[in-house]
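During the first year of the project, the team set up a workflow for recording each protein of interest as an amino acid sequence followed immediately by a discrete structure-token representation. This format lets reviewers and collaborators read both layers of information side by side without switching files. As required by the reporting guidelines, we include two representative entries from the current panel. The first entry is reproduced here exactly as it appears in our internal archive.
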Amino acid sequence: MFHTIAEKDFGLKILNSLRCGILSVDLQRRITAINEIAIRIFELEPQNYVGMAVETILGEQPQLLQTLNDAYQMKNLPSRAELDLNLRDGKSRTVGYTVSFTKDDDLLVDGVSLFFKDLTLVEQLNEQEKLKDRLAALGQMAAGLAHEIRNPLAAIELTASLIKRKMNEQPAHTAQLGSIQSEVRKLNKIVTDCLEYVRPVKLSPEQVNLKSLLEESLGNAFSAVDREGIELV
């Protein structure tokens, strides 16, 4: 037997003090109890829903209504399960719940109570952990790809350098070979930057010639802006 102090509405205080949502319905499918947390989770307007038909109030929650229907047919009620609630913005909210029967003074079942807690944040944290695992795997794959890409780039740059030495007397050709070497270095830098993106950040400050850096940046930009018809000032 459960004893409480003889204070009016003490049971309501307990009901609204719990950190989980509570929804109770009787055998006629009328709401007999609903606390503030449940109202917030269901995104209902704050008002008294006791005595109203649960299908009328929560008609947009088919999984919940099915759970309440199935409870009367179960011999062993679930101690913990999950269901999805439909939200107004078209998204869903995951709640963990447990179900129990309510009984009258003669210990006969006169309704069902659902106790539930919003698990949306838990689900989001789980997804974030899965994302971290995928990013870690992607980082390992990127390291392998970088190695495979750098080898042919090194061979191209070396070959261009050797040919350039043999063609010292042909400035036009050596300039083209120098361009090849420059582009290879850019590709190599892109590979390095991709690797750095998945590695822990380590700052390596160094002094640079701002004029040279600006001229190099402008040189890289000119080839693109000319194609787009942009005038660079």
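The second entry, processed by the same pipeline in the following quarter, appears below.
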Amino acid sequence: MSTLKAVIVEDSRLARNELKELMKAHKEIELIGEAENVDEGFKLINETNPDLLFLDINMPEKDGFELLELLDEVPITIFTTAFDEYAIKSFEYNAFDYLLKPINQKRFSSSITKVIEKSNAVSETNGKEKGLSLDKQIFIKDGEKCWLVKIKDISLFEIVGNYTRVFFESNKPLIYKSLAQIEEKLPSDVFFRANRQQIININHVNKVVSWFNGKLKIEMNSGEEIEISRRQSYIFKDQLSF
């Protein structure tokens, strides 16, 4: 497998040095940058597009969760923390893993093994589609609740005023992004603009029925019913025809 590019976002120089020492035993991980706060980390991640992020949770001014909220897509993330309560909270965010400080080599190695397994699985399923691949994850924050969600698990995007509602599993949080901003990032072979208000994931469609005036009506696996505009209905039929 190719080397995984990693970055560290951690305010403690001692903790950053500790992580760098631990990485020396893993030639499959290449450290390409480090940052000591959220703003520096955001710039670093956008410039380097890492595969793996070691992220401190408790930092001054902005915490690790706020960094994830800024990113369009989130690398495989391992939280690092000295506080048990933060480690427990990280599970609510679907973090890939967490490491309690001080970090021992055995626990670090175990986490890296899981990273490599996950990365290999993602590489096998990713195609050459521009934009976000289906196994990439995005960070969603709505009030006090947060999630790391794979693109393929999102069934529907829907405009709600100046916000967009995101449907996955039984969750329907709002994010402050326009549907147009979201659409340009999505794999076009899987996500379809049903009408001005909604984008659907065709892999989550349960049933398609003919509707009025040449329109189609979609029933999603989750039960939502979506009416496809007449113009988009013709495109939808053409896209799904053999």
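For the second entry, the following points were noted during internal review. The longest helix spans residues 105-125. DSSP finds seven helices and 15 strands in the chain. Both points are flagged for discussion at the upcoming steering committee meeting.
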